[in-house]
Write a structure and sequence with these properties.
Shape: elongated
Radius of gyration: 17 Å
Order of helices and strands: HHHHH
Number of strands: 0
Structural class: mainly alpha
Largest sheet: none
């Protein structure tokens, strides 16, 4: 947590964290759209890769929903919503790394 965030009033801190979460969710979505658009259609249709792309798309949508939901809570409800958001962010990150691993294996030359 930054020094500035530590001295903010609770409501200002919640607004700042919420705005940051929403920006982060948009960034994940943009990255997903970029990588998805750049994939060769034959790669995208691979069974494992297609399923992982769909899973990642779903997880990013969930993350965006959780980020938007932060704006509608305060107090303990906001803290629980933030924990839900952080869990969703972790799931997106894990799925993203798995997808990148699949892409690396697909792109590796066959020996």
């Amino acid at each position: 947590m930054s020094a500035r965030a530590q001295v903010m009033r609770p409501e200002a801190r919640r607004r700042a964290v919420t705005a940051s979460a929403q920006r982060e969710a948009r960034s994940w979505k943009e990255q997903f759209e970029s990588i998805s658009a750049s994939l060769d259609p034959r790669m995208r249709s691979g069974v494992g890769l297609a399923a992982k792309l769909e899973e990642l798309r779903h997880r990013i949508e969930t993350l965006a929903t959780k980020a938007r939901g932060l704006a509608h809570h305060s107090g303990e409800g906001w803290k629980r919503a933030r924990v839900d958001y952080l869990r969703a962010r972790n799931e997106v990150s894990t799925t993203w790394r798995t997808l990148l691993g699949l892409l690396e294996r697909e792109a590796a030359p066959v020996r």
